[in-house]
Amino acid sequence: MSVELPPAVATYFASVMNHDWDALRACLAEDFERLGPYPEHIFPDPDGYVAFLAELLPTIADHALTVDRSLTARDRCYVEITERLSVDGTPKVSHLCLAFDLSPDGRLRRLTAYLRRT
Length: 118
Fold this sequence. Notes:
five-stranded mixed sheet; alpha+beta; Nuclear Transport Factor 2, Chain: A; 5 strands
């Protein structure tokens, strides 16, 4: 399935998967914040969030994100994703919904992550 995303949301996913931290930072507004699904995944500023991902993601084996579907309405984009990784050689799969709030200039103002429990 082909999913059309707002440019900043598409850049977000491409940057995360390619570990392109400069491109990721460029798509985040100055007042960006990241919320949920866990307390330790709350970041009140874009630089802290990018630093967190830059330190964490290169250490995760077999990390991959798949965009399953999305819905964009005005300044909000909801994206359902499947995240895959390996822990001690064991594959793990998580399903999440990410809510992106877009700023007037099109960059990401807020990212709220919801984990689907199975």
